[in-house]
Amino acid sequence: DERLRALDDMMGGVLEVRREDILKMDIPPPPFITKHEELWTDEEHRLFEEYEKKVKELNEEKEEYKEVLKTEWKKLEASIQETTQNFDETAYKLFERKVKSDMVIYQEELKIVNLTCALLLDEELDTREAGLHNCLTKKKKEKVSYHLKCFFFSPTQNLERGFIKQFTDIPDDLLDELFQLYTHRPKSQGTDMPLDTANPYGNCLGSAEDDKDALTLLMKAMDELDSPEHMPDGLDQSIWKNFCLARRKKMESEELVKRKALTLAEMQVFLRRRLEENEKMKSRIENIFKELTWLQEQKMKLQQNLTVQFLLKQGQVELESTEIPDYSDAILIKKSVVEDLNSSIAAQGEKKVATIIEFKEFSRGIFRLEWEHKKMRMQIEDLKQKARDIVILPISKDCQLFLTVLNYDSHIAQHLAGMKQTLNVMDKLHKKNVKNHQKKVRELKKYIRLKEQANYELSLELKEMLVSVSERRHIFEAADTRDISEKIAKQRYQEILKQTYLRDLIKEQKEEFEILQSELE
Fold first, then answer.
1. Is the pLDDT of residue 144 over 50?
2. CA-to-CA distance for 436 and 426, rounded, in angstroms?
3. Structurally, how many domains does the chain consist of?
4. Which end of the chain is more exposed for a tag (fewer CB within 10 A), N or C?
5. Which ranges form a coiled coil (predicted)?
6. For residue 427, what are the domain limits?
7. What is the C-alpha to C-alpha distance for residues 51 and 54, in angstroms, rounded to an integer?
8. Claim to verify: residue 177 and residue 269 sit in the same structural domain
9. Helix axes 159-166, 237-304, angle to 10 degrees
C-alpha cells in the first residue's frame, strides 16, 4: 500500500509524533565524517558544528524526558506502595476482626458445650436418682412382714401304756399279739405331704381337703384291718371291737401329729428362706442408699464446682514447661482477697524492716557506748599516767629559783654576765685545743700514708700467697666439696626461711600498726 509505505518512510508509521519517540531518534552523521579532519572545508566544519549542536540538544531533550519519566515512575511507585500499605492495613484489620469474631464464637460454643454437658450430667443424675427411688419403693412394697403362728401341741397320752392298762384281763400271749396288731400301721399311699415353700400361705396349717382324703384312705385301710379275719383266735368279739376303737384313736392321733410336724418343718424352711431374702434386700437397699448419697454429692459438686471461662492475653500466662497444667483442683478467688493478702504481706514486711532497722540502731548504740566506755577508760589511764609523771617529774634549779627567788630577772642578768665570762674563757681554751688537734691530725695523716705503702706491698705478697694457698686448697678440699655444698645449701635455706619469717613479721606488724593508727584516728 503506497499510503502506508509513505507513512512508514516519512513519519515512522505514526501520524502524530509522540514525546517518547525522541528516545528512538538519532541524528544521522554527515557523510564527510569519514574523512580526516584536516581535509575538511569551512562548509564541512560549519555543518559538523551544527551536527554537534543538534546532537547536544537532542541529548538534553532525552535527559529531560528521562528525568520526567523518573519522577513519574517515583510517583507511581509511591502511589502503588501507599495503596499496597493501605490494602495491607485493611486486610490486617479485617484479619484481626475475623480472629476476634472467631474467638468470641469459639468462646460461646465452648460455653454452650459446657452448659449442655452440665445439663446432660444433671439429667443423667436425675434419671438415676428417680430410678433408684422407684427401685427403693418397689423393694419396700415387696418387703412383707411375715408372722408365723406358733403351734403348741398338747402332750398326747401315752396310748401304749393306756392300752396295756385297758386290756389287763386278757392273757399274756393274746396281749402280745394284740399289742403287735396295735403297733402295726396299715400301708396307705399319698399320705405324705410334699414340702411346698413357694407359696407362703399354701400349706402352712394344712388343707382341709387333703386331711379328709388322707383320713378316708386311712379309714379304708383300718376297715380292712378291723375285719374279723385279722382277729386272733380265742378273743372275745367285744374286746376286739374295743381294740379296734383304741387302734383307730391311736392312728388318728398319730396322723394328726405327723401333719403338724410336716407343717412345722415347712414353716421353718420358709422362715429361713425369707430371712435370707430379707438380708439380701437389706444389702440391696443399703447399696441403693449409698448410690443415692453419692448422686447427691455429685449433684452438690456440680452445683458448687462451676466451670468459668477467662480471657487471658497472650504472654500473661507463664509456663515453665510446654505441657499445659491441670487446673481441675484450682480455686477461684476474688482479686480483693489477693490484694488484701498482698497488702498484709507488705505491711508485715515493712514491720520486719522497721524492726531490723531498730535492732541495727540499737546495736550501733551498744557499739557507740562500748567505744565511749573504752575511751573513758583510756582517758582515766592517761590522766593517771600524767599524775604519775607530775609526781615523778624532776624540777631543775632554774625552776626552783624561779619559784623561790623574788627578783628572778636581776638574778638571771647577773647569772648571764657570769656565763658570758666563762664562755669567753672556754672559747680561748677551745681554740688552743683545736690547734693542738690539728697538729695531731697532720702527724696521723703522715703515719697513714706510710702505712698505706706498707699495706700495698703486703697486699701484693698476699695475692701471691693466696694463689698458692688456693691451689693447695683445691687439691685438699676436692673431696669435701659435696659436704660443703650441702652445708651451704642448708645455710641458704635457713636464711630464706629467716627472710620469709621476717617478712611475715613485718607484714603483721605493719597491719597492727595500721589498725592502731586507725583506732588512734
1. no
2. 15
3. 4
4. C
5. 41-86, 278-305
6. 411-487
7. 5
8. yes
9. 170
Q: Is residue 8 part of a domain?
A: yes
Interatomic CA distance for residues 52 and 29, integer angstroms: 9
Q: Are 230 and 182 in contact (CB under 8 A)?
A: no
DSSP states of 412-431 as a string? HHHHHHHHHHHHHHHHHHHH
Pairwise CA distance, residues 332 & 307, whole Å: 10
pLDDT digits (tens, 9 = 90+) for 422-468: 888 888 888 888 888 888 888 888 888 888 888 888 888 888 888 87
Residues 130/149, Cβ–Cβ less than 8 Å: no
Considering the domain architecture, whether residues 179 and 230 belong to the same structural domain is answered as yes
Determine, yes or no, domain membership for 500.
no
Q: Kindly state whether residues 345 and 459 are assigned to the same domain.
A: no
> Are the C-beta atoms of residues 193 and 210 closer than 8 Å to each other?
yes
pLDDT digits (tens, 9 = 90+) for 122-143: 888 888 778 777 877 776 666 5
State the pLDDT at residue 177.
Answer: 67
Nearest Cα to Cα of residue 266 among 189, 194, 190 = 194
What single-letter amino acid sits at 32? F
Query: Which grid cell sits at 161?
Result: 401304756
Q: Round to whole Å and give the CA distance between 194 and 207.
A: 12
Q: What is the 3-state secondary structure (H, E, C) of 223-235?
A: HHHCCHHHCCCCC
CA angle 428, 430, 436 (to 5 degrees): 110
Secondary structure element (H or E) that encloses residue 122, with its range: helix 42-142
25 pLDDT tier (thresholds 50, 70, 90): low
How many other C-beta atoms lie within 10 A of the C-beta of residue 210? 14
152 is a domain residue: no
Distance, CA of 48 to chain centre:
96
In 3-state terms, what secondary structure has residue 146? coil
Please check whether residue 163 is in contact with residue 179, taking contact to mean a CB–CB distance below 8 angstroms. Answer: yes
Please choose, from the candidates 244, 188, 191, the residue with its C-alpha nearest in 3D space to the C-alpha of residue 220.
Answer: 188
**pTM here?**
0.33
Instruction: Identify whether 496 is part of a domain.
Output: no
Residues 6+ positions from 15 with CB-CB distance below 8 Å? 7
CB 307 within 8 A of CB 111: no
Lowest mean pLDDT among 21-25, 192-196, 337-341: 192-196
Please count the residues of the chain. Answer: 521
CA angle 121, 125, 131 (to 5 degrees): 145
Q: Is the model more confident about 157 or about 488?
A: 488
3 state SS of 57 = helix
